[in-house]
Automatic annotation (TrEMBL):
It catalyses: acetyl-CoA + phosphate = acetyl phosphate + CoA. InterPro entries: P_Ac_Bu_trans, P_AcTrfase, P_AcTrfase_dom1, P_AcTrfase_dom2, Phos_Acetyltrans/Butyryltrans, PTA_PTB. Residues 5-317 form the Phosphate acetyl/butaryl transferase domain. It holds the Pfam family PTA_PTB. Keywords: Acyltransferase, Transferase. One of its GO terms (molecular function) is phosphate acetyltransferase activity. Its EC number is 2.3.1.8. Belongs to the phosphate acetyltransferase and butyryltransferase family. The keyword Transferase applies. This is Phosphate acetyltransferase. Pathway: Metabolic intermediate biosynthesis; acetyl-CoA biosynthesis; acetyl-CoA from acetate: step 2/2. It comes from the Bacteria. It comes from Spiroplasma chinense. The gene is eutD. SUPFAM superfamilies: Isocitrate/Isopropylmalate dehydrogenase-like.
Length: 326
């Protein structure tokens, strides 16, 4: 599985330069990352502002800056009125197209940008709401989900969904697993092994959550192919340690020492799990990266560091290349 540095190299080797929009252009951390991305040739950058006096003097000369407050883009207005037909009055639409989070999503919908990074000041809901309303989920999925790239030494794997879906039903859980497996393939994993986590291993426990995971596993059987293998339900020790797995689940289809993707049954487990791995286990958690949208939109923690933002921007460029070809 590719590391963040390897993802960066693949972007630099691409023949296509993508455009990434940052709605929070007035933030110093965003400017620092935008300048670095532009200088390194990783993407074309667009920064959004409410007023001219927010534009910092140290912004790279090749970065495009846009002031959107008081400027109503006619094409964007027509687009959002069409998308939200019957649910949005023109006066409301005029307000929305002057909001940076909506403007960024509309740029992507109109092919003026290929990806968006947002969230230093916006909540996750405020980042994703316009994306879900305007860009929407990809045709094969009814939901978006999130994934973390977990790294420690030479170990590299994915945790999902640790940031978005509170209590996914079996269909949604199987979609979450499949989206993460697809992302692992994009990260150059030839045969992706995905484990569905639970407090039960192969029927050792019982309860509604176990049933939910088991139903998701059954649904995934029809989605498997030579390059994607799913199995479960499984406790974390069985999933993570092959010797334990061989003892507890001798008929398991997973053969790798450590699977490529770990799918948590709900947001409680996923959010707690990645933070335990990060804080107690010493794993670096890059993300969350949003999966399942027609174009990539990634949400920043409001406490994100410059390095966090930089990594998120790199993965956003990579996702846009995967969507639109290299």
């Amino acid at each position: 599985m590719m590391t963040i540095n390897e993802i960066k190299k693949s972007i630099l080797n691409s023949n296509t330069k993508k455009t990434i929009v940052f709605p929070e252009g007035r933030e110093e951390k965003i400017v620092e990352v935008a300048n670095k991305m532009q200088e390194e040739g990783l993407a074309n950058i667009v920064l959004l502002f409410d007023s001219e006096d927010e534009i910092a003097s140290n912004i790279h000369k090749d970065i495009e800056t846009r002031v959107i407050k008081g400027n109503v883009d006619k094409e964007m207005l027509e687009t959002i009125l069409e998308i939200r037909k019957g649910r949005l009055e023109e006066a409301e639409a005029i307000e929305l197209v002057q909001k940076r989070n909506y403007y960024g999503s509309l740029m992507m919908q109109l092919d003026r940008a290929d990806g968006m990074v947002c969230g230093l000041n916006y909540t996750t809901a405020d980042t994703l709401r316009p994306a879900l309303q305007i860009i929407k989920t990809a045709p094969d999925y009814s939901i978006a989900s999130s994934v973390f790239i977990m790294t420690k030494g030479d170990q590299n794997f994915l945790f999902t969904d640790c940031a978005l879906n509170v209590d996914p039903n079996p269909k949604h859980l199987s979609d979450i697993a499949f989206m993460a497996a697809e992302f692992a393939k994009q990260l150059n994993v030839k045969t992706v092994e995905t484990v569905m986590l639970s407090y039960s291993t192969a029927g050792s426990g019982a309860g509604p959550t176990v049933d939910k995971v088991a139903k998701a596993v059954d649904r995934l059987k029809g989605m498997e192919n030579e390059s994607m293998i799913f199995d479960g339900e499984m406790q974390f020790d069985s999933a993570f340690v092959k010797s334990v797995r061989d003892k507890k689940y001798p008929n398991c289809k997973l053969t790798k020492e450590i699977p490529d993707v770990f799918v948590f049954p709900d947001l409680n487990a996923g959010n707690i799990g990645y933070k335990i791995a990060q804080r107690l286990g010493g794993y670096e958690a890059a993300g969350p990266f949003i999966l399942g949208l027609n174009k990539p939109v990634n949400d920043l923690s409001r406490g994100a560091t410059v390095e966090d933002i930089y990594q998120t921007a790199i993965v956003t460029v990579f996702q846009s290349l995967c969507k639109g070809g290299k």
